[in-house]
Amino acid sequence: MSLPPSGSNFDFLRRYDTDVERLARQAETYVHTDPESCLFKLRLMVETMARRMIEMQRPQLLSADLGTMLKSLEHEGTVPRKRADAMHAIRRDGNAAVHGREMPAPTALRRLRDAHQLSGWFCRVMRRGDRVDPGDFVVPPAPISVTAREKEVLAEAEALEDDIEARRYQTRQALLLFGDQFDREKDTRRMVDELEALDRVSAAAGEPIVDADSVALIMAMELEQLLGHPRLGIPTREAQKVADEQLDAVKNQLDEREQAYEQERARLANEARSAHDVEDADEAER
How far is residue 57's CA from residue 40's CA, in Å, rounded to a whole number? Predict the structure, then answer.
């Protein structure tokens, strides 16, 4: 499979948003030779997407930072969780690149692939009813030869990205416990109503009746609400403190883990560049 005649995976974007297409093409150009610039362009691309959607729903947030905009779009249901995860990954890695962190090419390539999937979804959101066909993503050809050692380092970097992706997914699932998307009163009341309806069905069938309030609290998975519930005997203020302390501890662990990832990425990026420099020197001697 090869790239379109124009040499870009993002041709289809031109019909929908020329700014997003321009940034995507620029990122694609840099993916092998300058991963940091690629990630920076992808971050701008995601920010442009977010602003387009915010303009339609929450224009008062146009001056907000990208993280706030994405959080709002996800909360409103405009951006599904899977898409939000991809956008946050690009935002996070793009921020690292902006702040001078060195990134290996596999990081940029993975985010470029994410951006291609996001682009098709974005076009369908902006032009409902259109049949958007982004086509299959094709890895852009590397413009330079790759040494054996570089291949080894790139394989290590790819394995690291797999680990990062898996851990970030686990983190996201864990942090849903603290999600502010949860409307405590409304969602708990809905769960109670649904469970009470099941109680009535169970009673008619001669089955045991469940405690709807208790099960709803467990289903809600809201730590502060659970701790503050009268049955557990912890005052609301203390429950809030416990929840905040636990959330802070989780965030600190995540920050430390992200810093470790950045250091490992920088090490691999440096090794790949060193291996290429050695090959260039050998070529020059020959």
Answer: 26
Report the 3 state secondary structure along the chain. CCCCCCCCCCHHHHHCCHHHHHHHHHHHHHCCCCHHHHHHHHHHHHHHHHHHHHHHHCHHHCCCCHHHHHHHHHHCCCCCHHHHHHHHHHHHHHHHHHCCCCCCHHHHHHHHHHHHHHHHHHHHHHCCCCCCCCCCCCCCCCCCCCCHHHHHHHHHHHHHHHHHHHHHHHHHHHHHHHCCCCCHHHHHHHHHHHHHHHHHHHHHCCCCCCCHHHHHHHHHCCHHHHHHCHHHCCCHHHHHHHHHHHHHHHHHHHHHHHHHHHHHHHHHHHHHHHHHHHHHHHHHHC
**pLDDT tens for the 286 residues of the chain, in order:** 666 656 789 999 998 999 999 999 999 999 999 999 999 999 999 999 999 999 887 888 777 888 888 888 888 888 988 898 899 999 989 998 988 888 888 999 999 999 999 999 999 988 887 788 889 999 998 866 667 777 788 888 888 888 888 877 766 665 554 444 445 556 556 655 665 665 565 555 555 444 444 444 444 444 445 445 554 455 556 655 666 676 667 666 767 777 888 888 888 888 887 876 655 555 555 5
Domain boundaries, given as residue ranges, for the chain: 1-143, 145-182+222-286
Alpha-carbon gap, residue 118 to 86, rounded angstroms: 8
Q: Which fold has domain 1-143?
A: Four Helix Bundle (Hemerythrin (Met), subunit A) (1.20.120)
75: its two tokens = 């909360």
Structural contact between residues 43 and 94, judged by C-beta atoms closer than 8 angstroms? yes
